Amino acid sequence: MRLDIVSIFPDYLAPLSLSLPGKAIESGLVDLRVHDLRRWTHDRHRTVDDTPYGGGAGMVMKPEPWGEALDELVPDAPVPDAPVPDAPVPAQLGRDDELQGNQAPDDRSQDDRALVGAPRLLVMTPSGRPFTQALAGELALERHLVIACGRYEGIDARVVEHARARMRVDEISIGDYVLNGGEAAALVITEAFVRLIPGVIGNPESLAEESHSAGHDGLLEYPVYTKPPSWRGLQVPDILFSGHHGEIARWRREQAVEKTRARRPDLLPAELREIIVGEATSS
Ligand code: 6GU
């Protein structure tokens, strides 16, 4: 996978060369390139922001540096101002038999269909759609991702509007809180999808078991224990010494359901949900 990350604080992305993403880079599975947005400015002060039209607090990131950055990083993208007949598929990855299973959901619009296999732009913003494990799984199969880290009060909205015509674009949020910029969020999503790239993690079975994976109905993970059997007066549950694999599996499932009910009732599959007295059932 080719991964381009654009930021005005490229040093913020340095931790990506450590640990898991670092190994994926060394092994050649990920070709990571971090870029300073100011490279695409032309004035003496390397200006990337300006005051918002319509007034208001804060600064808005100017469209020109972002436009030039995307032109350079995704050079094969079709140019929208010159309408192309018959929805071209980018030549370098256009063949149907090369497409990954995640790339062509049936509900995709005609315009989107032309972009199947095209580079994918992820714009980090608190107003984006929530990042999920399912999206991480999709991203792990992409050939070329570009992550745009916004700062200040956001990026001029025309940047995304323009990009949508030539590449697949997702505006992504990592949760309902506000960060000063998208860099920390870019670190988070990169760690989440890089470990799902085939070949990055030694034992793929460990992936299926963990929280938020599809393997266990989306339940949170059951509690785990290791030696010693007694520690500071606390015992490992007896069932785990029983050797009854069926019973152990049942106990773990029960624990996972109860933990999910307590912490994340929104994740409970419908058949495990209990009617809570007093809760509105219709609008
Ligand atoms: Cl992706 N960016 C910023 N600035 N704040 C966020 C976020 C992203 N996700 C949650 N909060």
From TrEMBL:
Record field: transmembrane: none
Q: Which GO terms describe its molecular function?
A: tRNA (guanine(37)-N1)-methyltransferase activity
| Segments of this protein annotated with the region Disordered | 71-112
Q: Does the keyword Methyltransferase apply?
A: yes
Specify where it is mainly localized.
Answer: cytoplasm
Q: What biological-process GO terms show up in the record?
A: methylation
Enumerate the residues binding S-adenosyl-L-methionine: 150, 174-179
Catalysed reaction(s) here are: guanosine(37) in tRNA + S-adenosyl-L-methionine = N(1)-methylguanosine(37) in tRNA + S-adenosyl-L-homocysteine + H(+)
Q: What does this protein do?
A: Specifically methylates guanosine-37 in various tRNAs.
Family named by the database record: Belongs to the RNA methyltransferase TrmD family.
Q: What's this protein's name?
A: tRNA (guanine-N(1)-)-methyltransferase
Which organism is the protein's source? Microlunatus panaciterrae
The gene that this protein is the product of is trmD
**Which part of the complete sequence is present?**
1 to 283 of 384
